Fold these 3 entries.
Entry 1:
Amino acid sequence: MSLALGEVPDAAKQSVDQKLGTLDQQVANAYGQWHSQEQSSEETLGQLNQQRSETIRSIGQDLQKAGAEQPQDMQSMAQCQMMQDQAGQQGGGGQQAQGPAADDFVKIEDVQPNAQKEEQGNSFATECGTNDEQHNNSDNVVAAPGVVNGAHHIHDYVGNFDTDAQTSDQSLDASDTTCTNGDKSTYYWVVLRSLNGKEDQRGAVGNKSGPAEGGDNAGGDEAANSVNTNSLTHDSQGQDQGQDQGQGQPPAEDQGQDQGQDQGQDQGQGQPPAEDQGQDQGQDQGQDQGQDQGQGQPPAEDQGQDQGQDQGQDQGQDQGQDQGQDQGQGQDDQVGGGEGEEAKPGDGGSNDLNVGTILQPAEAEIQYAAGGDDKVTAMPQFLRMPTGDAKSFTNGDKNANASWSCEGFEDRQLKDKYPICPEGKKTLRTLAFQDCWDGKNLDSANHRDHVAFSKDNGGKCPDGFQAIPQLKFTLKYDIPQENLVNADTPFAVDSFPEQLHKPITDHADTIIDTGEDLQNKIVDCINNGKGCS
């Protein structure tokens, strides 16, 4: 849906962004219901397609009210179908349904050379660490600003300490950084996990103490707590984090009757309810932190009866602390929540089918270099860029930009397979960003059209675009050797549930905040034949 959008007027951007987040949440919830065998595939798809149709119709109305045209084929995008050949014949609960599969892996020695060894050209390296601070969350401020758990998977962050769903240009500039040269840019990528059967809830919504019982915590609970205060400023245990994301009709049901936490989604259009009508028989310990941004009718009632903590749709009469930000659109964007067995689908961790111990890179190289042109111009401050496509398994590979390899085998790059590396050789992920900018916009409606790759235009920037330094992450991992020997699927990236942890979905994002002086130094290093840091 986001890829189909053209220019979105400023007056509609916030609402459209939130509703794009709603579409992701709807798919994630549907996948969770199917996978847990709560519903048949037919029931799940019928409900999902109705929800998507209402949301997409509401996006079209937002565009029209702001004076923009709707894409002609918008409603056709409402319909989803099961990919039975990939989801497997086992039904919900099967390992095949979670992914990845054994045939997603290949020994690097069996891959024929397919890439030239990169020559060390003019470049600038910035040292920002490997996320020792354990700054993790399941937000994506570039692709889903303002949406808690907008990614439905966990990201590693280096650089700016501030980054989460609510990050703004101002908060970035006011924050500190892990980069040794004062670079306040935020650099982040989806985490890689060792598929060892353990749960590691670092960064999951509602989790403040790192991995769940049975998981590993490389930095210990104290380390996890020390940095997650940045990523969990807007979501902590017991907060009212439900979504009022609606577009017309209330949900068919509240997400069940939770013994612990009501996390239902209000998907209606209209006025928010005057009060939470759920029958709380325990303590409502939450803080209503939702952002009231919606446009729809409220649910007739909250049908969940909470005997623990109400984390659903308390929209303004919460007996706790209402910290919601009423942004005038009526849509509560908080999602997920809870810990352990009481956690609900949509927390970014195990309840979004992201399991296994998070692997910290052994090395994380962040480099700016020339792309297609030898001469580059400065990147504007607060430029937002994604690279790769988190949904490329279902979207297709048009925007996929995954590149996997092994130390010593850099001339063998994989896009849709994970490499099995020889013992003692690190697994490599390379994530290169666009090296052309339209000279005007810091972002675009689909978060892509304002930047481009020169490689897609014969090595030169498209007409109207100018060459900028090309940002590249090179992440190196030590995969546990026992995984490589004893497991058919030893590791995988986090993903949206329906993307099945496929290697082609690898992706990363950035917001540039180097400051003008440092940016000019980067340009000088590239344009004048220097290698510097």
Entry 2:
Amino acid sequence: MKIRFYLLLLVLGGALQTAVCAQTSNERILVQLDKVISQKEKYRSEREAAIEQLKQRLHYASSNEEKYKLCGELFNLYLHYQADSASLYIKRKEYYNSLQRHSDRDIEIMINHAEVRGVMGMYNEALAELQAINPHQLNSPNREYYYFTIRACYGWMADNTVDKTVQKKYLRQTALYRDSLLEIIPKGNNHQIILAEKLILEGHPDKAIPLLNKVLTSSLGQQEKAYAFYTLSLAYEAKKDIDMEVYYLAQTALIDLTSSVREYAALQRLARLVYHQGNPERAYTYVSCSMQDAVACNARLRFLEVTEFYPIIDKAYSDKKAQEKRLGRILMLSLSLLAISLIVLAFYLYHGMKKLSAMRKDLSQTNKELVAVNKQLQQTGKIKEVYIARYLDRCVSYLDKLEQYRRSLEKLAMASRIEELFKAIRSEQFLREERKNFYNEFDKSFLELFPHFIRDFNNLLTDEGKIEPKPGEILNTELRIFALIRLGVTDANRIAHFLGYSLATVYNYRSKIRNRAKGDKENFEQEVMNL
């Protein structure tokens, strides 16, 4: 059971893959056909240019023989393009033939009349013209032309007849003339195509298909290729293979339209198939194109074929367009509601983002302040670390010196050297040296912490007011006062006590330097503290 189930899955999978591949292939060729239909005017212009070139040659032709031949070429170009013009050039052929009559040309002109009347739907007149001819008295080209035309004429009449009995009669006649044509036509591509057509109508499409595929491998003209493709579509129609029928009808239609043929059957048959496959828009395009061409060519049969099916496709197309319009309105309404919702949401988000931006700004400012405070704290910590270490060291050194000084005084006292003792006690040399050493230590420590202080401080002053220490000095009095201010000692009493100056002297120094400031004098000391 499992094996059977797997086999069934394989068969279904293969069938599905084949269907998908065929659909993809058909879609490609149908898109190509859509493009050709949209460029139909370009191909029409090319055909008109070819016709105009022949007309110019006819105008300048010197012999009646050449003019008759050119009128025949123009007749062939107009036959499936504009039947009325084709009739005009038959009359011109009659005229040039009358100047130098040939019996074979008389027959050719009679068949021309029948052929163009068949295209225009004048079947009785066409048959009357053909039945007046005895095919056994014709030369080989005219006999082949005769059987080809009369077979086509009976085929058109069968297609245009509602009465089934009469239709069968016409189909029998078509088959008889097809057989006659097969007997006389030389072996070649046309013979094989007509034979394949016979096999299809006799119920043997599987025999016809390889025959036609072989024909397509040989060198063919556009008209022969279109004939082969169309016959292949009939074979696949008989086999009920819709995808392949669509493919070969599309191939035929491509040749018809690129050749700017206006009397054709492939495109309207293709319109029916794509309609039944659920594509009324494409079917409408094809049937509209077919109707326009049939009217322009004055091909009555093709026009009737189109008008028979046109209302059905037109209604389906209109219904679909109406449904699309309704869906479009619903979609537009939905999009409008969505747009309004998005606007409201955007408005809400805008205000939310605005608040968030303000909060971010506050946080950023707070962060900057914290960074500045942290930096200041780090600096303060570094200052404390440096100065505590230095001043602990200085205190120990000072205690040692005091001990040495005490011992020197003790020695003088023990030696009863009273005069020298009083002299040492009264002397300020010891204090001056210690104060000098103390300021040197302060200056060194400060410049270790702020190595660019002198340069940065002078940048705050005018060029005339800049201060530079004298040779041998590290900092002078003015710089030392503002070094203390940079360290946060702003009280004048503490500065005066630290430097051993009077309060008035410190005020004078501070005021003198402030007056030399480049910028705002009131904020000068604050700027110094920020160095």
Entry 3:
Amino acid sequence: MPENKSKLLIPAVGTVLIVAGGIAAYMYFKGGTAGDISGAVPSAKVVPNEALMATYISTDPKVWAKLEQFGTPEAQKLVAKGLENFNQDVLNDSNFSYEKDLKPWIGGVMIAVLPTTPTKPAQFNGTSPTPNGLITKKLPETNTLMVVGIKDKLAALNFANKLKGQKGVTTKEIDYKGQKIAETTSKGKPTYSAVLNNHVVFAPEKQAVEQAIDTFKGEPSFLTKEGANTILSKGVNLENTVAQVYIPDYASTVQQAIATSPQAAPLPPQTLTQLKSVKSMVFGVGIDDAGVRMKAIANLDPALVKFQYQNTPSQVVSQLPADTIALISGQGINKWWSALVEQSKDYPEFKQVLEQARAQLKVVNIDLDKEIFGWMDGEFGFAAIPANQGMLAQVGFGGAFLFHTSDRKTAEAIFTKLDTLAKTQRINIAPRNIGGKDMIEWQVPRQGALLAHGWLNQNTLAVTVGDSVVDAIASPKQSLDSSENFKAVTGSLQKPNGGYFYLDMNKILSLINRFTQQSQPLPPEANAVLSSIHGVGITANSPDNSIAQMEMLLALKQKTK
């Protein structure tokens, strides 16, 4: 929601609560919502079923308090300063404090995105002059509805009474089907709100509040929308959930987002078909003992799914060194490639690029599909490894690529061809034995090794970029799976899975500071935040072709004095 609209929440909510009742209703005001994630379902009951998506944010203090166990002293000061600034902004705009005036009674917030109002699409087809004389299209605006839970109605009423002396705010009542709507005007901008039992609904457009009232009185709600009930009731099963996003019709939501974006181009039919493979999606954020965890679950249409994730045995993790900076691993590149080739039939531009790549490789007698991707049928890992010598010493890292394959013969044949091509470019092809493993290095005169390749075992091919990287891969002193940092970042992610995305933030920060200290040092605030992070871990899996799951952990360091 735009900032200027969100700042109108306090006077709008407060004024409508004045209208809602009096001290005589004391016993009634003792009830209310809890403010945790369980409040999403009751809130969805007053959101119209036309809503494209909804986000529920918990206001339960116990959930947010989990963040207090993390961070360096510098990062903790930044968080405290941010909260102080937020409170001052609220205070300056409305003479109220979130901590004292809002926190006691606000019980969870749901923000729903509704389709544009009937009058808005007509604007999209018209034009309007801009200050420079150009003619541009008017775009439909996003229509939002906020549903605020009331966990303590007496505290809410006291807050409303405190607003009676508020200056610069005017309010008038509008009757809609026997329900009072408060039109609150502040700084010339009207907002609309109404009390619906244990909730206050609030929107910049009156029609959205009217729709919420219709829903409250029995019209179909977001909870009854096809696909919504399941994702609302199940969620993503996170510990200490602070927010969840619900998208019951994924394709329609993306189309609406594109329609309201001035830069976005219309979707081609092929892309729309792919979008329809995702029926619904739920995304959540939670805070647990490891850090901030995010999960997304997509419900798929099996008939439209082109590719299914394969679980990996995660063996490449044990073949990489413990000081690995970053990693992307997975399974079955050849199947990914086949799915990409199949989809290229629907995209003429991409198909043309693909055919050009095939033709260029045929000139040097290489088959792109069979010799480059065909043998990559097992697990793979792409990693950034520290490099302290050779041509990449100044950069600080090189690359390692591991491929498990059941077709060693084809893999060996293509690298024999590549070695022959390298010789024609005056690159020295030199064999090396490292830790009992035979490796082939491509050496550039006076610069050291450019690339190396060889077999770590019967079915694992290693390709490295950087002079010292081949030694770290062929003969690692300690493996990545024994690294305490890797365990902290990935140890609690879902298993089995389709592979990992991993960042070691300590090493990333060291590289950043190395590159910026002579030009423009990293701001102290950014350095404090990054220093509080162990790393980032992401994984995904697909139990069957009707569901796909993604999990991400921002692993945080425990609080230090």
